[in-house]
Amino acid sequence: MSAPHLHTAGAPDVPGTADAVELRCGGRTVARYEYRPHLARRESPRPYLHPVRTLGGTAVTELRPADHVHHLGVSMAVPDVGGANFWGGRTFVRDRGPVELDNHGHQSHLGWPELREDGFTEEIAWQRDGRRLLTERRTVTARALEADCWALDFTTELTNVCGEELSVGSPATNGRPGAGYGGFFWRPPIGPRPPEVFTEDAEGEEAVHGSRAPWLAMATDAWTLVFAGATEETRRDRWFVRAAEYPGVGSALAWDRRLLLPAGRPVVRRVVTGVADGRLERAAAAEVAARLTGKEAAR
């Protein structure tokens, strides 16, 4: 049975339900976007993409894995927004370590300024205990690159609407060195062995974790993901990378210092990810990265 269609003003029919829409590229469904997820408060409920697939149909995201049940495919997840946890799980507290706190926020879908089968623009409220801290304008688009590779273009505009000073932090800014995660985060599935990770001039988890690089690749025999910062501000952020313990890649908003969110002025980040079937070596990954952020990626 085919998926039902959503109807929005000024937009064509888009396959989906009351809680999710499909993202299509070249006539194929490449991702499902859950915009009204049913999750426990402790998981910091938020919209996410899962499953995301290669054009050949291989899944490249994981949802609620046993090692970190609050990892949700591809999402915007931030552990500290003015003290509110929009990441899920425990909160790292200086001089105490990970602590179970009742400080979880949630991201609520507000509406679709634009909705198409190859992408959307969404308005989202970041709230804690009924109080809105941020309003996000999120734009996600799928586009073909090659016969075996497509691109997921993910832009977020975060605006402080709480009426007072607000900043983003991380476990690192709260006292845990190297744990600067928070922002765009992609959780791939665990395979038979850890994936390879590399940039243009570095290789291995230890070398690329915390680095500033225009692009970063994570590769297995079945798939390769090439992540590229598509704005100057995004390229200044460091990469959070895990491979041995579990696979994960994020673009960190607050690596070693808190990021101020000025009232009423959006903070914008854009990450474009190449999703390829099979393993790409460094030269091929570099070619994909150039296409992700070149003239073809401009709007």
Q: Count all strands and give the number.
A: 22
Please tell me how large the radius of gyration is.
18 Å
Number of DSSP helical runs = 3
Helical residue percent?
A: under 10%
Q: Would you tell me the overall average pLDDT?
A: 93
**Which class of secondary structure composition applies to the elements?**
mainly beta
The outline comes out as globular
Percent of residues in beta strands: 35-45%
Low-confidence stretches: 1-11, 295-299
Largest sheet geometry:
8 strands, antiparallel
Distance between the terminal alpha carbons, to the nearest Å? 35 Å
Query: How are helices and strands ordered from N to C?
Result: EEEEEEEEEEEEEEEEHEEHEEEEH
Instruction: Trace the largest sheet across and list its strands.
Output: 10-11-12-13-22-18-17-16
Structural overview:
The chain is mainly beta and 299 residues long. Helix content is 7%, strand content 44%. The chain contains 3 helices and 22 strands. It has helices at residues 205-208, 232-236, 282-293, and strands at residues 5-6, 14-15, 20-25, 28-34, 48-52, 74-81, 84-86, 91-93, 97-99, 106-116, 119-128, 131-146, 149-160, 167-169, 183-186, 196-198, 215-219, 223-229, 238-242, 248-252, 259-260, 267-277. An 8-stranded antiparallel beta sheet has the order 10-11-12-13-22-18-17-16. Strands 6, 7, 14, 15, 19, 20 and 21 form a 7-stranded antiparallel beta sheet that branches. Strand 12 and strand 13 (149-160) form a beta hairpin. It is globular and about 50 Å long. The model is unreliable at 1-11 and 295-299 (pLDDT under 50).
